[in-house]
Amino acid sequence: MFNDVLVTGGTGFLGKILVSGFEGRTTSLGKSADNLIVCDLSVDIPKIPPTTKIIIHNAGKAHVVPRNLEQENEFFKINVAGTKHLLEGIDRSGAILNQLVFISTVAVYGQEIGSMIDEQYPLKGNTPYALSKIQAEELVVNWGTKNQIPVLIFRLPLIVGENPPGNLGKMILGIKRGKYFSINKGRARRSLVLGEDIANCIKENIGKNGIYNLTDGVHPSFKEIEKVIVNQLGVSLPINLPSFLAIAFCFIGDKLPKFPFNSSLYSKMANDLTFNDVRARNELNWKPRNTLDYFKITKNVNQ
To answer: How many alpha carbons lie under 13 Å from residue 226 in its C-beta half-sphere?
Structure first.
């Protein structure tokens, strides 16, 4: 039996949160057998149930640094061609949607340093991940305009939930294994958002159009995030890496690609990168919770 809410990538980290948030109303679409609709969007046009009213396009490639041209092309195959195939599937299905939601990323802005970047900031992202998301955003906006279907695009920072992937997951694992060092005494701030709040925001804004940053509005420091992680894992606070050592490690890492530390990583950990969500607060009645109050880690995390 198919439900009226379709979630692509419904078995992934955020996908599971979105599926749970709609409490039994969802049909999951993805390439693994765990999905009710099994389809590899990068190569196939899906068969969308005609009863579908809401689609949340969450499937995509992320959290990987490409090492060659083939891996770079995978971002466009999955994120761009996959989105195009989904839209073609909707057109073929006869489904009349009340809402299409596209899960995007703050990476489209292309910034590693900045404070309170809003949706008017130019899209300067030039990585395969960012460029593929920019192109996918354009596809869904044009499709929504052509078909007069409301489209919401959420540009998300680090997502908080139980055992997150990506940079937040690497941070947790590094602290657990004692291989993480605090930089600049953890003063730099980052924008976070709670996965459950994203699901709630979608449910409360069916029929809306627009592109929005979503954050918790707190933008905690690395030190604050580190404290929450060590308290849950029951380990010691990471050691602060002195500036002279950090500079020395940067020099080594910039010369040796396999070295786990370099100037780019240092810059990311030493400087603020935060995003403005005032538009969502004003237009979507976005009232997020403090992510650090809901940070969940299982002690056997092995991501």
So the answer is: 22
> Which pTM was predicted?
0.93
d(Cα 288, Cα 92) in Å, to the nearest integer?
37
Question: What are the residues whose beta carbons fall under 8 Å from the beta carbon of 63, sequence distance 6 or more?
Answer: 165, 166, 167
Decide if pLDDT at 214 tops 50. Answer: yes
Is residue 190 a contact partner of residue 220, using CB atoms and an 8 Å limit? Answer: yes
DSSP track, 139-157: HHHHHHHHHT--EEEEEE-
Q: Do residues 139 and 84 touch, judged by C-beta distance below 8 A? A: yes
Encoding tokens for residue 239?
């050691």
Scanning 76-221, the segments in alpha helix (DSSP H) are 82-93, 128-147, 166-176, 195-203
- Alpha-carbon gap, residue 30 to 38, rounded angstroms: 5
d(CA 26, CA 22): 6
Cα four-point dihedral sign 122, 127, 129, 132 = positive
Task: List the chain domain ranges.
Answer: 5-163+191-219+273-294
* Residue 82: how many other CB atoms lie within 10 Å: 27
CA 247 to chain centre: 30
What is the C-alpha to C-alpha distance for residues 185 and 296, in angstroms, rounded to an integer?
24
Q: Which of 198, 182, 153, 186 is nearest to 294 (CA)?
A: 198
Instruction: Measure the CA–CA gap between 153 and 135, rounded to whole angstroms.
Output: 13
What CATH architecture applies to the domain 5-163+191-219+273-294?
3-Layer(aba) Sandwich (3.40)
pLDDT (tens digit per residue) in 120-175: 999 999 999 999 999 999 999 999 999 999 999 999 999 999 889 888 998 999 99
285 and 223 in contact (C-beta within 8 Å)? no
